[in-house]
Every structure is written in structure tokens, then in C-alpha cells.
Amino acid sequence: MSVFAKGEKCELRVREESERELRIYTDAIMRGDTTKYLFTGSTPMRWIDSAAVWKKEREAGDVLFGIWVESSTYKEWATAHQFVGICGLHSHRDIYKSWELRILIFDKDAIGKGIGFEACSLMVDYAFNRLNAHRVWLGVNADNELAINCYKKVGFKEEGRLRDEIFYHGKYVDAVRMGILQNEWGVHVEA
């Protein structure tokens, strides 16, 4: 697997859609360790179901990466490299030069270690400096304060809310829309 982008805490690799990669992802999703705030709810799935979704996204022109970490920045017992999440640029609108950023750290031990921040930063940098995007946006569950703080740290700004847009754990919550423009990138990014 070749590295596409590398930071200090993680590296982005093009998703290979191998059975191994899909099984790791699907098993983590099924455990539900970090999927509490997902927009899509939770439905039982098999690794071949995940494969179909990833294939559909790739065929739609989405840019898909796996998030990998080295054991020295992650945990002592990890293999040399550990697959801990996925991220991508979706819903490209060429006329507006706009992309939707999606990220999921599915390994609970990787949460709160700056891996999500670094992966988001690598993705935004790629969108603006390689794809010539004008705008990158995302949606986030209003109850997911950890993610919202991460996105703000990257430089995203809240643009609006969709009231009671998401139903999870027996209640409706707002979806927060956030965005960053090309001329804002790098201006207020914190390390």
C-alpha cells in the first residue's frame, strides 16, 4: 500500500477495497464503538455490503482514503501500521469547485489523539492545493462536540443548522453544516 499523504500522526492511503481492509472497517462499524454520531444510523452489514458502498462512491468520482497510523504514535501493541479510519471528498460540484469532506475514526483507541485533526487537515490541503477546490464543507451531529471542536481547529466555520435533522438514540438532534473557503485555509489553523 502506497502512502498518498503523510503527517506526523497519520498517513492517508488510497482505499484498496481489499477483503482485509473491508473486514476491519465493517467489524468496527458493527461493534459501534465510534459510530454514535453518524448521520446514516446503524444497520447490520457484511463486509461485502461495505465493498458495494465503497465501489459506488469510487464510481461516482469520490476521492477515498484510509487513515493509517504507526504503532509508535498510536499504541504499543499495534502492528507496524494500523488501519483506524476512513476519509474522503464526496459530492463534487465542479461548477462550484465544492467538495464534501467525510471522516470516520472507527478505532476507539485512536479517538482524542489528534489523528482526526491531522487527517482533516491533510484532506483540506489536498482539496485546495491539488484539486483547486474553492470550498470544502461537511455535516456533523450537533451533539458531537469533539468533532465540532476538531473541525473548528482545522478552520471550518459553522454555516447553519438543520433542526432535528438526525434521529439517533431515541431523539432528534440538529445537523450542523460547516465550511471552509480556499482563502481561509491556513490562516487560522492550529497545531
Descriptive terms for the model:
191 residues, alpha+beta, Aminopeptidase, 8-stranded mixed beta sheet, 4 helices, 8 strands, globular
Give a description of the structure.
With 191 residues, the chain is of the alpha+beta class. The protein has one domain (3-138): Gcn5-related N-acetyltransferase (GNAT) (Aminopeptidase). 27% of the residues lie in helices and 35% in strands. The protein has four helices and eight strands, in the order ββααβββαβαββ. The chain has an eight-stranded mixed beta sheet, sandwiched between helices. Helix 1 (19-31) crosses helix 2 and helix 3 crosses helix 4. The two termini are 27 Å apart. The relative contact order is 0.15. The mean pLDDT is 87.
Classified by CATH, the class is Alpha Beta
CATH superfamily: Gcn5-related N-acetyltransferase (GNAT)
Sum up the overall morphology in one term. Answer: globular
| CATH level-two architecture | 3-Layer(aba) Sandwich
Quick summary of this structure?
The chain is of the alpha+beta class and about 190 residues long. Helix content is about 25%, strand content about 35%.
Helices and strands in order:
Elements: E1 3-6, E2 11-14, H1 19-31, H2 47-59, E3 63-70, E4 81-93, E5 98-105, H3 115-129, E6 135-141, H4 145-154, E7 157-168, E8 171-181
Parallel strand pairs: 5-6
Antiparallel strand pairs: 1-2, 2-3, 3-4, 4-5, 6-8, 7-8
